Amino acid sequence: MMSEQTVNRPEPLPVYLLLGAYLGVVFVKTEVISWFRIQEMFRFHSFHMYGIIGGAVVVGALGILLIKRAGARSLTGRPIVFPSPQDTRPGPQHWIGGTIFGLGWGLLGACPGPIYALIGTGVWVMFAALLAALSGAWVYGLLRPHLPHG
Fold first, then answer.
1. Which residues are CB-neighbours of 101 under 8 A, at least 6 positions away?
2. Per-residue confidence of the chain (150 residues) as pLDDT tens digits?
């Protein structure tokens, strides 16, 4: 049984910050942040990005399987809960959101995930991308009560 103190304890953000920094280094070293690699992927000229994305899907699926089987908890002891498949069926909102996301990705020339890694490597124009991403999240927050969320 979890104590009230465990439930109310905040997640240890420095641990996640270090994991995020490590992931940024991995993004840079594997060239995931390279505009040229992304262009190669969309033109079907290279397997590099598909291999990385496929590997990430496999690692993620195995991680979820292990978390479920082990009944793992967060660092503060909270249970890790996954939505049921019935709750995650794609609807029109997913297709529209995915299209907007994909167009943004294509226009930007970089996946939004490594924006911080790109800034860290000196690609200063990514500050504009970060501002656009934050603006989009802010607008979504404003519109969320009026959007269909299934």
1. 112
2. 555 555 567 777 888 889 988 988 988 898 888 888 888 888 899 999 899 999 999 999 999 999 999 999 887 888 888 888 777 778 888 888 889 888 887 777 777 778 888 888 898 988 988 898 888 889 989 988 887 765
d(CA 112, CA 16): 18
What is the radius of gyration, based on Cα positions, of the chain?
18
DSSP code string of 41-96:
HHTT--SHHHHHHHHHHHHHHHHHHHHHHHT-B-TTSPBP----GGGG---HHHHH
Q: Find out whether 73 and 80 touch, Cβ atoms under 8 Å.
A: yes
pTM as predicted: 0.65
